Structure formats: structure tokens, C-alpha cells
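To assess whether ligand presence alters the predicted conformation, the chain was also submitted together with magnesium ion. Input:
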Amino acid sequence: MISIRNVTVDYGRGDKSVRAVENISLEIGKGESLALVGPSGCGKTTLLFSVAGLHRPVAGTIEVGDAPVLGPRKEVALILQNAGLLPWKTVLQNANLSLLLHKEFPANSADAVLEDLGLAGAKNRFPSELSEGMKRRVGIARALSTSPSVMLMDEPLASLDTLTKERIQDLFLELWKRHQFSQVLVTHDIEEAAFLGQRIVVLTERPARVKAVIENADMGELAYRGTETFMKKVRQLREALES
Ligand code: ADP
Ligand code: MG
């Protein structure tokens, strides 16, 4: 579904260029969930944005569903850090932004998704009137509104309190199982990676290269978080990151 082959991404050109991603190859199958972890500033966002069609690699190729990535598209949803809500727009307007971008609004609207996420009663409110958890759910509603086959997430739950974070991680698991999209989750939260990634890729310091790939076939149920296997996986990930 997503094919990343020998991808290198630089910022700028010539002497002053900064290499953020170096020679990364990853295959993510249809309906697969991959977590990407790595040190702050290593190049995670750069790689994810390249898959989203927002950066152009200087070398290598990225394909989504057998077509080269040339720019943003409807099938590929992106959940940004801090949800990326516009403060001057209501919940409903914020949720409709992706549809608007892809010229599908007003024929289609995010109303049903908001309802599904328990936000119907809040649709005329502004972001400043929402809890942090609700803001993240509006970001999720926006991403789901276009019925994507690929879900890309950039530290979607950073700076939430633990309980709110775990509740939304549960929601992510449920949505992934229900919609069966291919998923790439960028996170610096080791437990989040172990809860949501079937495969976890550990990246090096900048420029990001693949340092380790950890299989996590036992994930997929809410109860996984409380198991010994989960704890072991978290320890294994921590060691891979620190080595
Ligand atoms: P991460 O998401 O892993 O924290 P990023 O992908 O955002 O890291 O950034 C990777 C590296 O690229 C960082 O060291 C950052 O300083 C650099 N970088 C990011 N954006 C730019 C830019 N627009 N111009 C120059 N360097 C950048
Ligand atoms: Mg980042």
C-alpha cells in the first residue's frame, strides 16, 4: 500500500542543505499499522510529510497504492500535532477543512463523523471552548471525513494527560480496526508505539535511518496494554532507542 524506497530528504540545496532523512526503505501493507519512533529532531515529521506529498525527496521513490506520490490527495489523511485546528473556525468548519481542500464540501460534510466521535453537540463551538481531548477528536474527525485508505499521524497525542491520551489511543485502535486503513503513527511515546504499531521502526539521530524494526504481532486488543508481553515490548523498544 505504501512503498518507501531508498528515500533521502534534504532541506535547502548545496552547501547549506540539511539532510533530514537518509536512504530509508519501508513497505507498509494494506491495513497494516506501523509506528515510527526516534529522537526529537531526527526526521520523523519530514518522512511522514514526504509520504503525505508535502515534501519531495531528493532521492528514492514513494508510492501509495501503486501510484507515485506527487502531492496531497484525498485517500491520504494526515493528523497533525496538536490537531492543527484553526481557532477562528467552529468545530464543524474545522472538521470540514479536508473535504473543502479536496473540493468535496458542501456535497459531503463531516457531520456524520462528528456524530460518531461524540462531537455532534459541540459542532458550533470554537476550539478555545473545547478540552484538549475534544480538540484531538476534531482533528481525527477531519482526517476521517474523506474516508481515507491511508492514515498518517504526527505525534497526535503529544502533551495530553495520561488518561485522556489512553482513551484516544483506544479510539485509534478501534477506528483502525473498523476502517482498515493503512496507518503510520509517528510518536516519541514508547507505550503508544507498542499499543498501536504492529511493526515499530526505530530511527537513528538525524539524518533518520532505520535503526531497528520490532515486530509487535500481539497488539490489537485494548487489554494488550495490561499484559506482560506489552511490558516486554516497551522495554525492548526503550533499549533499541537508547542503544
Ligand atoms: P522530528 O519530527 O523527528 O522531530 P523533523 O522531521 O521535524 O524532526 O526535522 C528533522 C530535522 O530537519 C531537524 O533537525 C530540523 O532542524 C530540520 N528541519 C526541519 N524543517 C526544516 C526546514 N524547513 N529547514 C531546515 N531544516 C529543517
Ligand atoms: Mg516532528
